[in-house]
């Protein structure tokens, strides 16, 4: 519900949609079907390794809390098949932040971050912050979960430096609205 709510806000805003941390594409496909995204004059960029977390981006604190490599199976080909009917969806494979320059848009109306690790998520938020349209939402999928306290602390700092707040939701997600 939260992802659909945030995405629906983005429909009336200038800009494209970005999801970093896609795995098999459940959120993105839900948004596409909910909004009839194929008929919108927007592009949806889907960034992921499509094979799970990268060891080099898991901090020692995250490792201590149980964040591990190997929890996800490779799924790139399945994701490409799933989204092949949608000409305005671009599947981008690789590590964030390395793939962030592949998002070819000047403005972002919706940003979803679900990479389960602090550094790639903060890198994506920093990369897109200036491109976010006023009123756009950032959905932080893991914000409220004990296992992801490093992300929570980092996003609290990120928000404070920008004069905004993270709304902690009972779903475990966090929400930031761009002023």
What does it look like?
The protein has 179 residues and is an alpha/beta fold. The chain has helices spanning 2-11, 26-35, 60-64, 76-83, 118-129, 149-161; strands spanning 16-20, 44-48, 89-93, 108-113, 132-140, 167-168, 174-177. Helix 1 crosses helix 2 (26-35) and helix 5 (118-129) runs parallel beside helix 6 (149-161). The chain is globular and about 45 Å long.
Per-chain topology:
Blueprint: H1 2-11, E1 16-20, H2 26-35, E2 44-48, H3 60-64, H4 76-83, E3 89-93, E4 108-113, H5 118-129, E5 132-140, H6 149-161, E6 167-168, E7 174-177
Parallel strand pairs: 1-2, 1-4, 2-3, 4-5
Antiparallel strand pairs: 5-7, 6-7
Summarize the model shown.
With 179 residues, the chain is of the alpha/beta class. The protein has helices at 2-11, 26-35, 60-64, 76-83, 118-129, 149-161; strands at 16-20, 44-48, 89-93, 108-113, 132-140, 167-168, 174-177.
Q: What structural keywords apply?
A:
179 residues, alpha/beta, seven-stranded mixed β-sheet, 7 strands
Determine the mean pLDDT.
97
Principal-axes shape call = globular
Write the H/E string, N to C.
Answer: HEHEHHEEHEHEE
Reported for the largest beta sheet, the result is: 7 strands, mixed
The counted number of beta strands is 7
